[in-house]
Amino acid sequence: MLDTDGRGAYHSQGNDNLEAIDVGVQIGLAGRIGGLVRRALRSRSSSGQLDLKASYVAFVDDLKARLPNDRAMELAIGDGFDTIGPIEAGLIAHYGLPPDDGYLIDVGCGSGRLAQPLARTHRGRYLGIDLVPALVEHARKITERPDWSFKVIDHIGVPEKDGQADMVCFFSVLTHLLHEQSYWYLEEAKRVLKPGGTVVFSFLEFHEPGHLPIFRATLEGAKARTKAPLNVFIERNAIRVWTSELGMEMVELRDAGDAIVPQGALGQSICVLRKPVG
Ligand SMILES: C[S@@+](CC[C@H](N)C(=O)[O-])C[C@H]1O[C@@H](n2cnc3c(N)ncnc32)[C@H](O)[C@@H]1O
């Protein structure tokens, strides 16, 4: 049985037979094969521990088999359509997406938790991308914005030309990727951003007491050899090094409990980066 903390961190609650990735094995593999991860993830025929897409599709299929479709679509991304979604939309506005003509790329858009509330206020462009076709279709349906674009992807990468977006966001997405994969996505975000554009991502960290239960649950799941999407922590020192390596500017790092917007605290820590203008 799988559950989430309402923000998309997955907890194992005993054995289940989901065909997803094994936390311990994947982390170990990443250490050993380093750069091969990227090539393996690009391969549509890659299977087993490194096939992120297959693991998420299987996870969602399992929920669909057990629950009414709409409920499965909500639980697949951690629920919180009435609470987390409006907070995410508030953060997007707070960090400066121009509401009239701004272009947001929502990586790992899931079933539309952010897109649905954002559609009511954001008149500009939007591209949502995700690995799981059923989630992308649900997001498209509930958002009711024929002018917005939703795309299914097969590997890490943003299907957009260089220098187009005002903001790229990753809410509860880098929390499920290896560090190499997160860094790769940040490279992609920088590529598609306009000069001066903004990256917003949420993350889990050991510094945050509220995140420790997620680590403990993930550890127990690994010991029990349960199959679930990864929960990965990112330390602030790593983020600072990545920011420098990427040639981005750090705007801010915020605690998970900070109520940055009136809608409330996200429950995951927040990092905001800017692509230099020059
Ligand atoms: C916890 S959900 C968060 C969904 C959404 N960002 C939100 O906050 O409502 C994580 C999402 O990331 C997607 N995902 C996982 N790995 C991904 C990857 N490599 N590229 C794009 N999306 C990914 C999953 O399919 C899932 O929809």
Describe the protein's architecture and organization.
With 278 residues, the protein is an alpha/beta fold. It has a single domain, classed as Vaccinia Virus protein VP39 (Rossmann fold, 3-Layer(aba) Sandwich). The chain is 38% helix and 18% strand. The chain has helices at 23-33, 36-42, 52-66, 69-75, 84-94, 115-121, 133-143, 179-192, 212-223, 236-246; strands at 2-4, 10-12, 103-107, 125-130, 149-152, 165-170, 193-203, 249-254, 269-274. Strands 5-4-3-6-7-9-8 form a seven-stranded mixed beta sheet, with helices on both faces. A two-stranded antiparallel ribbon has the order 1-2. The protein is globular, with a radius of gyration of 17 Å. It binds S-adenosylmethionine (SAM). S-adenosylmethionine is lined by residues 8, 52, 56, 77-78, 88, 107-110, 113-114, 130-132, 135, 153, 156, 171-173, 176-177.
CATH architecture: 3-Layer(aba) Sandwich
CATH topology tier name: Rossmann fold
Tally of separate helices: 10
Poorly predicted runs of 5 or more residues: 11-49
What is the residue-averaged pLDDT?
85
Helix content: 25-40%
* Total domain units: 1
The CATH H-level homologous superfamily: Vaccinia Virus protein VP39
- How many beta-strand segments? 9
N/C terminus separation: 50 Å
What characteristics describe this protein?
globular, Rossmann fold, two-stranded antiparallel sheet, binds S-adenosylmethionine, 18% strand, alpha/beta, 278 residues, 7-stranded mixed beta sheet
